[in-house]
Fold this sequence. Notes:
Blueprint: H1 2-7, H2 16-19, H3 23-42, H4 46-49, E1 52-55, E2 58-61, H5 62-86
Antiparallel strand pairs: 1-2
Amino acid sequence: xxxxxxxxxxxxxxGIEKNKTTKAxxxxxxxxxxxxxxxxxxxxxxxxxxxxxxxxxxxxTKLFILSLNTGHDNEHYGNMVTYLRMKGIVPPSSEPxx
Length: 98
């Protein structure tokens, strides 16, 4: 949803949680989502970053929208870390370096 606003496209996977049920489908959907996001980040030029795009009914720069996406991802990562620790699992990013 966030990245599609930057790309000027419709959200490609609305309702994905309702039709992907197996681990293989979910892993592939995650890979596809990263590839879709990479398209926006990897092709962004300085000029495009300053362009305005509609986001929740307001005009924002594309760079601002992508920065919100990064913050949103960090919030989800924090939730995953909490869940893993509650299950007694040390998140890979928290393991001591060798």
